[in-house]
Amino acid sequence: MTTARHGLRPRIVYRHGLRTARAVHGLRGGSTRSGDQPSTPAPHALEQAGCPLCDADQCTPFASAQDDLTGKPGRFSFVRCEACSLVYQNPRIPARDIAAWYDDEYIAHRKKTDYGVFTPLYNWAMDRHDRRKLALVRKYVPLSTRSDVLDLGCGSGTFLAKVATESGARVTGVDFKDLAHLPWMHSVEFRCGRAVAQTFDRGRFDLITLWHFLEHEYEPRATLAQARDWLAPHGRMIIEVPNLQSRTARWFGDRWPGLQAPQHTAIYDRKTLFALVQSAGLHVVDWLPWGAFPAYFYLFAGTAFKLLRGRGLNLARAVYPYFLGELLAAPVLLFEKRLNLAMQTIVVAKEEA
Ligand SMILES: [Zn+2]
């Protein structure tokens, strides 16, 4: 099937509407047990999207995914662009409505203290994640009290707080969810809103990080082009996203955690990620088949999603098997950086004039 953005749109939307009304009614009738028959989000809430990388409309179906993480009902379509091969969500929930899908359970927005007896272990793991980010950053950017750091999609801000503590750098975070009240955010200059809506001085930042942010972004090209303007001439931008050409993507298919429907707008492989940064006037300094985010999370979540079949993962109950599994997988995870398991990181700079 080829999806044309124009012409067919009203008819497709109307037909989905009829199906949706029935499906939602059925779920209310008590069949929520199974993720096998999800409803589709109300069609008026979906919009047709062109390719976020090249604007082409011609695409072919790639995967139909569920919200495996939270178990909310719905099925979401990913397509592959026939022109540039980017995989992106289409149709999709409009940007103005997506906030409802990032509730307090959303992992990047979770506070530090809500896992009961496992809280210390969870906090240790989250701090390890931030330490891994910092170690990765320091391979490319020397951080000091003179550094100015921006994190787009900063979530609960713990990475920036760590950067401030460890290096004394000035740190700024942007996220559409307002988490400025969290106690460690006092060291962070926080801006609530979309990245594209922000204004900063040209050439201000020595380092701009996007940790699992770009795949959520509705306007990735515009966002990167704008971030490029904010980057100092010697600055580096470090972008981590899931890698569509990774082992876990092959193993788990439409249950791959990297799809994360409906929040992920596009899923990049190495080629499309390179094309995206280059289209924004950035040049590639380095590319890594790993990231700060633990690949083990995708191993664990992918296995759980396969078993749960769309019923959602109860993170609080999963904490014990999660860490037990990590212990068992430790010998394999020693080689995480060589196995292309799940993540990719690209380091970019301003293109030389
Ligand atoms: Zn395209």
Task: State the main characteristics.
single chain, alpha/beta, 4-stranded antiparallel β-sheet, 19% strand, globular, binds zinc ion
Q: Would you tell me the structural class of the helices and strands?
A: alpha/beta
- Quaternary organization: single chain
Q: Estimate the global geometry from the Cα principal axes.
A: globular
- Rg (CA only): 20 Å
Short characterization:
The chain has helices at residues 9-28, 119-138, 158-167, 220-230, 247-252, 270-279, 295-308, 315-333, 336-339; strands at residues 59-65, 76-81, 87-89, 148-152, 170-175, 189-192, 205-211, 231-242, 266-267, 282-288, 343-350. The protein has 353 residues and is an alpha/beta fold.
Structure description:
By secondary structure, the chain is an alpha/beta fold. It has nine helices and eleven strands. Helix 2 (119-138) packs across helix 3 and helix 7 (295-308) crosses helix 8 (315-333). The longest helix has 20 residues, at 9-28. It starts with 8 loop residues before the first helix and ends with a strand. Bound molecules: zinc ion (ZN). Zinc ion binds next to loops.
